[in-house]
Design goal:
- The chain is α+β, with helices and mostly antiparallel strands and about 350 residues long.
- The protein folds into 3 domains: about 5-75, Winged helix-like DNA-binding domain superfamily/Winged helix DNA-binding domain (Arc Repressor Mutant, subunit A, Orthogonal Bundle); about 85-130 and about 230-335, GAF domain (Beta-Lactamase, 2-Layer Sandwich); about 130-225, 2-Layer Sandwich (Enolase-like, domain 1), CATH 3.30.390.60.
- The chain is about 45% helix and about 20% strand.
- It is built from 12 helices and 11 strands.
- The strands form 3 sheets. Strands 7-3-11-10-9-8 form a 6-stranded antiparallel sheet. A 3-stranded antiparallel sheet has the order 4-5-6.
- Helix 5 (about 85-95) runs antiparallel to helix 6 (about 105-120), helix 5 (about 85-95) packs parallel to helix 12 (about 315-330) and helix 8 (about 195-205) runs antiparallel to helix 9.
Length: about 350
């Protein structure tokens, strides 16, 4: 059973392993954590904790490391809730002190800051495009070879794409094409737009001179719009963690970053362990930890900020930073009527 002494020993092991990435033995616990128990008592309790599934013994040492079940117990019961470090709070708040920042910029800025502060990969999951439909398209020509396209969904979400054409396109072609798409594609699900464009191709070719270039640009943009709903910053930071020194493990992780669908379904994967604590969702999968904090932009649109790293991470620190960044995004857009921090 979990006695207060065993909980004290277990917490010390988790805290030490988070700091060092080295298996923890009884002597380390005595010397660094000043436990008033004999080495024999500590070793016996470590054996019991291992039998309970909270610790694992490595092949390279007599010390123990936390198991996935152990991390779950730690996050559910032993987090210190010390709050966000003042320096980190100021850095995040200052980064949002830009009046003309749009939601995409705010999310990307948050990810960059979180990745820098945690030395891990930070990301964001946007609204699920399969539930949204196209409301309107605005295309702003810059010159005859460049334009900025803005897609607006029924939820009010906006997505901006830059178009670059290999040949000159008359402004009249851009205007005509945009009018046709707004008439024919309004109300179509985002995930179906690329397919519906194929049906419009004959009509476009009949009335738009450079329909081929515009058709290709819009199809590519629609495909990206439907799939690019997960963003990551600092993927290279995973290289600096010993858990991912194995090249095959690293390749597997990088392929996960390239597949946006993985992060929406991670909790349901075989072997995944998940828990929600203090409004934050944590998932462990194959020695990988994903910590997520939701944010709400308006009544119909929400997303999640996340930090991805080894199971050996400072959960108290990560959870506090994620929660604060999510609140800053909500504050920026007065989501839910919240105007204070």
């Amino acid at each position: 059973m979990l006695t207060p002494r065993r909980i004290e020993i277990f917490k010390a092991i988790v805290d030490e392993f988070i700091k060092t990435a080295e298996p923890v033995g009884s002597k380390t616990l005595q010397q660094k954590y000043h436990l008033s128990y004999s080495s024999a008592t500590i070793r016996n309790d470590m054996q019991v904790l291992e039998e309970m599934g909270y610790l694992e013994k490595t092949h390279t040492s007599s010390g123990r490391v936390p198991s996935t079940l152990g991390y779950k117990f730690y996050c559910e019961n032993l987090l210190e809730n010390s709050g966000i470090d003042k320096r980190m709070e100021v850095a995040i708040r200052e980064a949002f002190d830009v009046s003309n920042m749009n939601i995409e910029d705010a999310v990307h800025q948050s990810c960059a800051i979180l990745s820098e502060m945690t030395n891990m990969t930070a990301g964001a999951i946007g609204p699920d495009s399969s539930t949204q439909t196209l409301e309107h398209i605005k295309l702003f020509p810059i010159d005859e070879r460049n334009a900025v396209c803005v897609f607006i969904t029924n939820s009010g979400h906006t997505e901006t794409k830059n178009f670059h054409f290999d040949e000159d396109i008359p402004f009249t072609d851009i205007e005509t094409c945009t009018d046709i798409l707004n008439t024919r594609l309004r109300g179509v699900r985002i995930t179906d737009l690329a397919e519906r464009m194929q049906e419009l191709k004959p009509h476009l070719s009949a009335v738009v001179q450079r329909h081929d270039l515009l058709f290709t640009a819009f199809v590519k943009a629609f495909i990206r719009f439907a799939s690019e709903n997960v963003y990551f910053s600092g993927k290279d930071r995973m290289l600096y963690h010993p858990e991912f020194e194995d090249i095959n493990r690293l390749k597997q992780l990088m392929s996960m970053f390239d597949d946006s669908s993985v992060w929406r379904s991670l909790t349901g994967k075989d072997g995944a362990v998940a828990v929600t604590t203090k409004g934050t969702r944590l998932t462990w999968y194959d020695d990988l930890a994903v910590v997520r904090s939701p944010f709400k932009v308006n009544d119909s649109e929400s997303g999640e900020l996340m930090v991805v790293g080894p199971s050996r991470m400072d959960y108290d620190k990560v959870i506090a930073m994620l929660g604060y960044a999510a609140r800053m995004i909500e504050k920026m857009y007065n989501a839910g009527g919240k105007n204070d921090e």
